Amino acid sequence: MAVPPRKALTGLVAATFTPMTAKGDVNLSVIGPYVDYLVLKQGIHNIFVNGTTGEGMSLSVDERKALAEEWCRQGKGKVDHVIVHVGCLSLRESQELARHAAGIGADGIAVISPSFFKPPSTGALLQFLQEVASAAPHVPFYYYHLPDVTGVKICAQAVLQGAQELIPSFQGLKFSSRDLLDFGQCVHSSPRSWPMLYGVDEQLLSALVLGAHGAVGSTYNYMGSVVNGMLAAFEKGDVAQARKIQFQTQEVLSFAFQLGFDLAVNKQLMLVLSGLPLGPPRLPLLQGSQERTEQIRDKLERTLGLLTPNYCAMGV
Description:
316 residues, 8-stranded parallel barrel, 12 helices, 8 strands
């Protein structure tokens, strides 16, 4: 049975960080101010929770449920879509999280490929996705393609072709790979109603040219207002302005990559730029380098004009 029609998922989607206490426990109290920051300061109206940026694979099932509930509760009436990542190494845990997401009113669920015991074929991956989707048949289902992390080198296009027949609730793709050939074929061969969301922030403009409907990324947490300007310019046909903004974000991210830009540093950067007390990442990740974070922050301020907020003014 197909899912009922909902508002189209387009534009920028922030892949949210998971707030932690200094001791490494989930800190739900930050999520309300976090939602307000995304909406009011960054112009972001879609969020993707418990994914890679949110350290989903380092969280327990109960923690992921609590986070999903709070994001849905705080986002109600403020954001258009809360997409909950429910992928796990365990099929049963993925199904449990899918059912839970349906019960709390999530606007969609996403699933990444298992990556310890890897699916040996497209058919095996599709069977796994089908089993998870069947646990929440009325919730829009998105495949989360991240081959560089999972090590699963199955073309996303092949997954989408099979999903069209096997998963009635299938709605689209979070494509986090630099393989623009595969992405272009996904756009070309998929129903136009399926959102094709690109997940490599520094290459977004190229994906827009190929037909991406939007993007999911971690840097939109703090560069969303800038990248929204790129989307607006592209939609108006002002390619020169869109290119200018993409080059500026590339300059910042290239600088960050050269220093060493991992999830820990990215989370620390969000803390500094937003003023939100996000805390450290969870082990085995270590606290991000303060010196490196400050260097990237300075580069952001010089290149994009992003200023560090007054912490007290954030009301958190």
